[in-house]
Specification:
CATH class of the largest domain: Mainly Beta
Number of helices: 7
Strand content: 35-45%
CATH topology of the largest domain: Thrombin, subunit H
Helix content: 10-25%
CATH architecture of the largest domain: Beta Barrel
Radius of gyration: 31 Å
Order of helices and strands: HEEHEEEHEEEEEEEEEEHHEEHEEEHEEE
Number of strands: 23
Distance between the termini: 115 Å
Length: about 375
């Protein structure tokens, strides 16, 4: 009896030791795996085996270094007093000048311009060219004042959720070249903005980010994780209920026109040659003696055409323009955006309603 008991004990001990050795060997074999216990929403437990992940978060300091010294504070002076401030960055240098990009609204109305580098040196700058509608301006400074040139990237290959960062001078010079970080929150957004000088509302295509932007960030670069410029900061939504909605002009929209700006020329934009009122503006239409049966009609109503313009042979007073090509027209702001997407000489298809019937016609765009 004692012998049997002893054998049983010995067998148990040997089995336990062997099992332990086997378990140790298995753990060593799979040392690059980790076992975790997870709990599902209903309280049931299950085991999961995942690859070990090593996180090495070093931030974006290397990427910031690539562009930091290429970014300048831009001061707009009128009669020797600072009228407005913003941000700009050097994107090019030749044998004489360094070329900076900024927003048109930053430098609009100036009598002189000065930029400040990261060392605090104040440098005279010259306006070369730009476009109010695109909100882009090109400035030059002496080549010797350039210490670094920004690398131009592309926004086309970016994806929602990609990390981005900005550099700018929010509030005042005390916070010059502040770096903020966020993600790409949206692409191909169409947002409306009103020009403070002309009170004209326009539509622009932008990138959306939650990277912090404040007054003074306008004209600064929006960069990807490689420190390449993918956009130019232009505007943000400002409401008590809104947080983290900043917008940047895609760098491609800027660079395709850059040679025009550098030569001091203006972008030649097409026009239809009409005076118009939004279809939902009943009060304004009444002043022209126009009454629409459909009070919910969208689009724009033609109130007059310009002689010898593209529209003069096709449209007449009372026509309601509802589409340009295949794009629906909400109002006059969207009509202008769709027309400005084209070049002089392009042919478009215009859809309009006349006497309750929908019609289409081809129209070749001209310049004014």
């Amino acid at each position: 009896m004692k012998t049997n008991t002893l054998k049983t004990v010995l067998v148990s001990v040997v089995t336990f030791i062997c099992g332990g050795l086997l378990m140790f060997g298995a753990l060593w074999l799979f040392k690059d795996k980790i076992f975790t216990i997870k709990t599902s929403s209903n309280g049931a437990c299950y085991t999961a085996c995942t690859n070990k992940v090593t996180i090495n978060e070093t931030g974006l300091s290397d990427s910031v270094d690539k562009i930091y010294e290429a970014v300048y504070l831009v001061n707009n002076y009128k009669n020797n007093k600072i009228q407005s401030s913003g941000t700009g960055f050097v994107y090019k240098v030749d044998n004489k000048n360094g070329y900076l990009l900024t927003n048109y609204h930053v430098i609009n109305g100036n009598t002189s311009l000065k930029v400040v580098n990261t060392e605090g040196a104040v440098i005279d700058a010259k306006y070369v060219g730009g476009d109010e509608y695109l909100d882009i301006a090109v400035l030059t400074i002496p080549k010797d004042e350039v210490t670094k040139v920004a690398e131009i990237g592309t926004s086309k290959n970016t994806k929602l959720g990609d990390t981005v960062f900005t550099i700018g001078t929010p509030v005042d010079q005390e916070y010059q070249n502040t770096v903020t970080r966020g993600i790409l929150s949206g692409k191909d957004r169409l947002v409306s903005a009103t020009n403070d000088t002309t009170n004209e509302t326009y539509i622009t295509r932008v990138l959306q980010t939650d990277a912090a932007m404040n007054p003074g960030n306008s004209g600064g670069p929006l960069c990807n994780v490689n420190g390449e410029v993918i956009g130019i900061n232009s505007l943000k939504l400002v409401e008590n209920e809104i947080e983290g909605m900043g917008f940047s002009i895609p760098i491609e929209d800027v660079m395709e026109n850059i040679s025009i700006f550098e030569e001091g020329k203006e972008i030649e934009r097409p026009y239809l040659g009409i005076s118009m009122v939004d279809a939902n503006n009943q009060q304004a239409l009444y002043q022209y003696g126009i009454m629409l049966e459909d009070k919910d009609q969208t689009g724009v109503v033609v109130v007059a055409t310009v002689q010898n313009s593209p529209a003069s042979k096709i449209l007449k007073q009372g026509d309601i323009i509802t589409k340009i090509d295949d794009t629906k027209i909400k109002n006059g702001t969207y009509l202008k955006y769709e027309v400005f997407k084209h070049k002089v000489g392009d042919e478009i298809t215009i859809t309009f309603i006349r006497n309750g019937k929908e019609q289409t016609a081809k129209m070749t765009l001209k310049s004014k």
